[in-house]
């Protein structure tokens, strides 16, 4: 959650179409080994609703921090219209705010005391369609409810420019529909980071694309899905042009080398050919490379298990902010999958956590079964560990160690999830949310669980990776419990049983 910021710059009076924020040759890096922007140029006009795109870890959230002034550029200028107020709804609520009450949470949005804070809270909670007492602890809210609180924390500041970082994560279908309508009707500026193309297409009018390779920002105006297709066509055209040019250059180089060996006037021919080659090499377009996709992967099942894995006789659901016990009869055997469904706030994440930790009443996990748990907030990860240490720990816990084999295996699996040597040495807390998700999947591959518990495993994940993840889960041979609000993802995975907490 960002405190409200008023950044003052010497702008002249602006019309409706004028620029309210501009990046001019902005460069930024996290130390010498992690450059993010290289002389990036783009602008945001008054009334604009823009999608900010880019690969996982490209630095999209960093651009938000540069806009708000939380970070400062290494070089270049960032100009913000005079008296423009900016607020950000982050991807996740910071860990150090999880024990705050709802009232304390909203008070932290402001630098000064707000005397009418209660009616303001009531108003923004109504806007995000959330009803909750002000003394409720933030940690007790579901992931979807926390997503609504993040939006409310930005709206309560009444910003001129609203920055939304993956706002649909953890939201159920009705929550996404409500948010889409809100943004469609929203009269002010907003910039949105999201991997949900249908959601973005409903209200955005342009795209800012941050390329992780060139570290430039490309700006497009128009319908979101049309622009994505336009970018693809342009890339293919540039790729074909480069293929032809490179083939022509290779042929000319071979001829020039042949003529140079002949001597006499043929050397002059060779020299002229080399000059021509230099001209052709300058025509080669610096094609923006597309997002890399993770390699196909396989999550091995624990070998020494068979038959029944889980027996679930009762669950706790949330009704009117209070837990209510309900009887169920769910048995999961090896190679069986359960889809756990229900609206935000009904208790899905709480149930998964209790199952994973063995604290759920009315459940029995067969002794000796390893539980692989993918948490939506990544709290199973130690944020102070490096990625290498986090992966190595999983291997130590589950295998007899041959360190030569271990290091090779670890690096091979990590590379499949786009985790290079630099990222292996990086602390998990410094990774983007999408990168944390890929690390979590790499840990599951190394863990070889007998029971796989997955809570919104596509949150923060680049859409190109999602089919690969779905395929891996569909091929998993252990028992599985899945929570996901993404129907297109669920359709790609065989589901044997459904437990709808709203209907029991």
Instruction: Give the uncertain stretches in residue-range form.
Output: 1-16
Rg on CA atoms, Å: 26 Å
Q: What gap, in angstroms, lies between the N and C termini?
A: 36 Å
Question: What do we call the CATH homologous superfamily of the largest domain?
Answer: P-loop containing nucleotide triphosphate hydrolases
CATH architecture of the largest domain: 3-Layer(aba) Sandwich
Structural class: alpha/beta
- Helical fraction: 25-40%
Task: List the total number of helices.
Answer: 15
Q: How many strands appear in the DSSP assignment?
A: 18
Describe the overall structure:
There is one protein chain. Helix content is 37%, strand content 22%. It has 15 helices and 18 strands. The strands form 4 sheets. It has a 7-stranded mixed sheet, sandwiched between helices. A 5-stranded parallel sheet has the order 15-16-17-13-18, with helices on both faces. Strands 3-2-5 form a 3-stranded antiparallel sheet, with helices on one face. α3 crosses α4 (143-155). Residues 1-16 have low confidence and may be disordered.
